Amino acid sequence: MPHQATLEIATRGRGTRDITADVQGAVAASGIRCGIAHVFVQHTSCSLVVTENADPDVRRDLETVLSRAAPDGDPAYRHDTEGPDDMAAHARTVLTGESLTLPVGDGRLRLGTWQGLFLWEHRAGAQRRTIVITVLGE
Amino acid sequence: MPHQATLEIATRGRGTRDITADVQGAVAASGIRCGIAHVFVQHTSCSLVVTENADPDVRRDLETVLSRAAPDGDPAYRHDTEGPDDMAAHARTVLTGESLTLPVGDGRLRLGTWQGLFLWEHRAGAQRRTIVITVLGE
Amino acid sequence: MPHQATLEIATRGRGTRDITADVQGAVAASGIRCGIAHVFVQHTSCSLVVTENADPDVRRDLETVLSRAAPDGDPAYRHDTEGPDDMAAHARTVLTGESLTLPVGDGRLRLGTWQGLFLWEHRAGAQRRTIVITVLGE
């Protein structure tokens, strides 16, 4: 039987938030020993990524890389209803992805030592975000 | 029992096409109430993305962002057999992804209000594309 | 019953390695006829992609595109503990993704004719990488 959980997460504007323990908790609650965990964010201006969990500079540098690929307030954008970070946030979300799928083994996420799961807020201001976690397997 | 459906989609060249209703239809046909829906495109020059479904300018601006990351006819490309959009299309596909995984709850896709599912054609000309939808759960 | 397999892969530094047959082998071993195969790399400096499997120039050009989006030794990076390719490798991994999900039908991966699965090493030097393959369905 699949297990599905919904989480509300408050962000403080642009930046990453570690959600590894939240997803690990949903896997534990599912009772599923072997299978996959799927994490999905119900928004188009924040994303979910797996990246290095030790040095916070890695996530700052990721911000730098994305800010070049999809700058705030680019004069070429037509969509700017909600400000200079509006279209940039949509583009950064498409480039990094709104969902993650992770392997589950022995009742736990099978992550590498240096892997963490992060919600990446791309809007400048604080937001409330909804995440859906689905665990499948046996 | 997993449910699998194959769809043929005609594109009119570069741009996005909303496939939300198609995927929603496959979920309904599956009879699955809780689980995941996986959508996969069997090509290397078009992609599948979740993005804002209200203002078409968002998708135009996404095109602008990708056209900078992987421009047509870049002199640095070695692969140009099928024209200036050939390699650009492969690169844009890798940057945005050939598959989507979505949560299913209460027998429906659990998308946010502003989320739509799009097939993104990266070749300049019209193409026929094949999509495979797999629904898993109970 | 889900099937899970772990693979060790030696890379020879930056570049792609075809893992299609490895994943196809895990699908065959699973005995699963219809469902999905999920492939996950337990690292934050190499990624997994689906791309054109015929002309190796495509993968060389993909390298060119990524080397512009996330150059080695960028003076803006703060994280450079392991050398000029360290942060570039993390960024390229986030842009291209650490996992793949593929449809399985008739007991095989349902890939398009030109699709191959590749492990993409982003570190300059040779590495040992661990991949987890999970097959779900019936």
Notes on the protein architecture:
The structure is a homotrimer of 138-residue chains. Chain A has 138 residues and is an alpha+beta fold. Chain A has one domain: YjbQ-like (Jelly Rolls), CATH 2.60.120. In chain A, 26% of the residues lie in helices and 39% in strands. Chain A has 3 helices and 8 strands; from the N terminus they run ββαββααββββ. Chain A has a 5-stranded antiparallel beta sheet, with helices on one face. A 3-stranded antiparallel beta sheet of chain A has the order 2-7-4, with helices on both faces. Chain A starts with a strand and ends with a strand. The relative contact order of chain A is 0.38. The mean pLDDT of chain A is 98. At the A-B interface, strand 3, helix 3 and strand 8 of A face strand 4, helix 2 and strand 5 of B.
- Note the total helix count of chain A: 3
Report the strand count of chain A. Answer: 8
The CATH class name of chain A reads Mainly Beta
Name the shape of chain A in a single word: elongated
Largest interface, C-beta closer than 8 angstroms, per-chain residues? A-B, 31 and 35 residues
Q: Give the helix proportion of chain A (percent range).
A: 25-40%
Q: Sheet with the most strands of chain A?
A: 5 strands, antiparallel
Radius of gyration of chain A: 16 Å
Reading side by side through the largest sheet of chain A, how are the strands ordered? 1-8-3-5-6
